[in-house]
Structure formats: C-alpha cells, structure tokens
C-alpha cells in the first residue's frame, strides 16, 4: 500500500512537471508569435506611411533642390557663379547654376573684382555680354574692375555697355569717305584689335591702323584692288592675310601677335620683332605713310576693341551725342567720346533698344 502511494506521488509530480513544461512552451511560443505579429504590423504601418507620404517626397526634394530653373541672385558670390554649372545653396535651397537657367536679380549688387576669390584675379564678364537668360529686375550692378575702373551695369545699358549720360547707343556709325577717328593710342607687338565693319564696296581704302610703311611697324586693315581686304602685322612681306573679297557685308577682323582673322579665315603670325606704330591708330583711315585723304574708308562700323596684352584699353561703342546729334564712338573703358577728326559728319544707324 505504501509502495502504491509512492508511485502515485511520483506520477503526480511527473504530470505536474509535464503540464508546467507544456504551459511554459505555449507561453514562449505565444510570445514569439506575438512579437512577430507586432513586428509585421509595425512594418506594414511604416510601409503604409511611406506610400502615403510618397506624394510629399518630391515636395521635400524640391524644398532643397529647386527644379523651376529660376534662380534668385542676391549677392556678388552668387552673381559671379552664373552659368558655372555649380550647385549652390541659397536660403536653404540648392540650385544648379547652369547656362540654361534663368536668373533674376533681387538686390543692387556692388563689389570689387579683386575681393572675389572665385574670379581668381580676373574681371567679371558683364552678364549682358553673355547668352545667359536673366531678368535684371530694375537692379544695378556696380563693379570695381581689377585695374580700378568703376563700372555700372543696369537696364539702361543692357547690363553690359555703360555710356555716359547724354549719349545714345546706335547699331553703327557710317562714314562717307571723309570722316575718321583717332583712337588716341599707338599699337605695338603686344596689341590686339577686333573690329566689326561693313565696307561701302569701294577699293583702295584704309580701314584701320597705323604704320611707318607697308614693310615697317605695320598694324593695319586695308582694302586693295587685287588682294581685297588685307590684314597686315609688322610687315606685309612677313604677315599678310589676303581675302580676295569685295563686298558690303558685315565682317569681323582680328589682329594679334598670334594670328590674323577675317571671319572664319585665319592665318598664323610667322615673324615679327618688337615694334610700335609711329602714330595713334585711326578708324576709317590709317596714320603714317602714305597718308592720303582720298583713301579714307566709307562704310559702317559696329564696334572696335583694342587690347594691350590682355588688358582692354579701348571699347568703342557707336553712339550719338543727344544734345546736338553728333555721332561718334564712346569708349566705355575710359568714359570718353571720340568724334570725327576729318570733315563732314558721321551718319548713324538705329538706336539700340
């Protein structure tokens, strides 16, 4: 009887232990399953939020990266980066300063080119001279150039040219064969010139420059009977570009110590030594030998630029003086108006709007 009780007690204990183990196992399994379910619910919730907020993702992106392609310009650091392709932050948004964007000036801007590290010792190129799309918004840009010149760019001068008060810019001035302009500067081996000019079609005419003779200290543009438009540097026997063209079309002429160019025709400079023209360069004529008043060129001048090395020293803009309608060239580098030193008066083309 005692033995039977002992066996029953052992069985009871075994059953209790088995039940406890089973309960423990079930609780553990439930906990694991419950945790997995909870994790799945949380994942579903987060996924749902992502999908629900997907429409806001573009909005969030655009709050940092503006895709409207319109970029506000507030200061010089932003101004000088226009068209650079850089990504730049403005008021918490990131803009790509591409050449295809449109820029709008929000403030008047004033700066010294020497103080802008990004320019690396070079002058800022006025935006009106570029192909960049912009809205000046009535603002004015005042720049002190590397050489200390103060320039103002605004709506009135198309954010490029700065004519003096009382001068009206025109497309061209036109000579009839008796007018010419003294540029006020001699030329040498380090000079460079660029002219946009349309002849009246007459030959044996002097268009630009100065020389001691055709073979000495020459820096000239002429039109001859046989050679057509000719560009000479140093000496015609060493460096002459001959075009064989005679027309009244608009052409661009360039001369430097590296090449001579007539539109897309180019010829390298092959030989020269240091030299200087004997007199100031003329426009619509040449100074020096021979000097013949019957050889003064007629035609239309659209602009003339002269550099010494890489420094622009003359930037002639066709215009007329408003008070008396006298036409001439305004040099925006030195803020000086140059008039005819021949006889008669220059004619002039339409005003530049």
Q: What is the overall number of helices?
A: 3
Mean pLDDT: 84
- Poorly predicted tracts of residues: none
Instruction: Please give the share of residues in helix.
Output: 10-25%
| SSE series | HHEHEEEEEEEEEEEEEEEEEEEEEEEEE
Could you tell me the CATH topology label of the largest domain: Jelly Rolls
* Rg (C-alpha, Å): 39 Å
The helix-and-strand class reads alpha+beta
Second CATH tier, the architecture of the largest domain: Sandwich
Description:
The chain has three helices and 26 strands. The mean pLDDT is 84. The chain folds into two domains: 70-157, no CATH class; 167-348, Sandwich (Jelly Rolls), CATH 2.60.120. The chain is of the alpha+beta class. The longest helix has 51 residues, at 2-52. The strands form five sheets. Strands 9, 10, 12, 17, 18, 19, 22, 23, 24, 25 and 26 form an eleven-stranded antiparallel sheet that branches.
What's a quick, concise take on this entry?
Helix content is 19%, strand content 35%. The protein is of the alpha+beta class.
Features:
35% strand, elongated, Jelly Rolls, 26 strands, 7-stranded mixed sheet, 3 helices, 11-stranded antiparallel sheet, alpha+beta
Q: How are the SSEs placed, and which strands pair?
A:
Blueprint: H1 2-52, H2 54-64, E1 70-73, H3 76-79, E2 87-90, E3 93-96, E4 102-105, E5 109-112, E6 133-135, E7 141-144, E8 150-153, E9 167-169, E10 173-176, E11 181-182, E12 191-199, E13 205-211, E14 218-224, E15 228-234, E16 240-242, E17 250-255, E18 259-262, E19 265-268, E20 282-283, E21 287-288, E22 298-308, E23 311-321, E24 326-331, E25 336-339, E26 347-348
Parallel strand pairs: 1-4, 4-6, 5-7, 13-21
Antiparallel strand pairs: 2-3, 7-8, 9-23, 10-22, 10-26, 11-20, 12-17, 12-22, 13-14, 13-20, 14-15, 15-16, 17-18, 18-19, 22-23, 23-24, 24-25
């Amino acid at each position: 009887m005692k033995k039977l009780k002992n066996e029953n007690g052992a069985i009871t204990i075994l059953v209790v232990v088995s039940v406890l183990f089973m309960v423990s196992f079930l609780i553990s399994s439930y906990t694991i399953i419950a945790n997995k379910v909870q994790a799945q619910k949380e994942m579903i919730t987060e996924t749902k939020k992502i999908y629900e907020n997907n429409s806001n993702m573009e909005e969030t992106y655009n709050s940092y990266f503006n895709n409207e392609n319109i970029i506000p310009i507030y200061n010089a650091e932003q101004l000088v980066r226009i068209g650079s392709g850089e990504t730049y932050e403005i008021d918490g948004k990131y803009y790509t300063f591409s050449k295809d964007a449109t820029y709008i000036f929000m403030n008047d801007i004033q700066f010294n080119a020497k103080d802008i590290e990004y320019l690396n010792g070079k002058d800022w190129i006025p935006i009106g001279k570029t192909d960049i799309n912009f809205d000046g918004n009535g603002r004015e840009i005042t720049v002190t150039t590397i050489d200390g010149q103060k320039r103002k760019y605004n709506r009135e001068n198309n954010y490029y040219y700065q004519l003096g008060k009382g001068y009206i810019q025109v497309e061209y001035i036109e000579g009839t064969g008796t007018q010419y302009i003294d540029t006020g500067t001699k030329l040498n081996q380090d000079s460079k010139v660029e002219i946009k000019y349309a002849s009246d079609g007459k030959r044996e005419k002097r268009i630009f420059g100065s020389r001691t003779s055709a073979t000495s200290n020459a820096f000239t543009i002429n039109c001859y009977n046989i050679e057509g438009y000719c560009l000479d540097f140093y000496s015609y026997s060493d460096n002459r570009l001959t075009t064989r063209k005679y027309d009244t079309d608009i052409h661009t002429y360039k001369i430097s110590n590296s090449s001579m160019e007539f539109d897309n025709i180019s010829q390298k400079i092959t030989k020269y030594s240091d030299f200087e023209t004997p007199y100031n360069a003329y426009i619509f004529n040449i100074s020096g030998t021979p000097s013949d008043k019957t050889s003064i060129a007629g035609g239309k001048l659209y602009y003339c630029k002269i550099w010494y090395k890489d420094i622009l020293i003359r930037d002639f803009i066709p215009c007329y003086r408003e008070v008396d309608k006298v036409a001439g060239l305004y040099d925006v580098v030195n803020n000086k108006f140059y008039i005819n030193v021949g006889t008669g008066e220059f004619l002039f083309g339409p005003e530049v709007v």
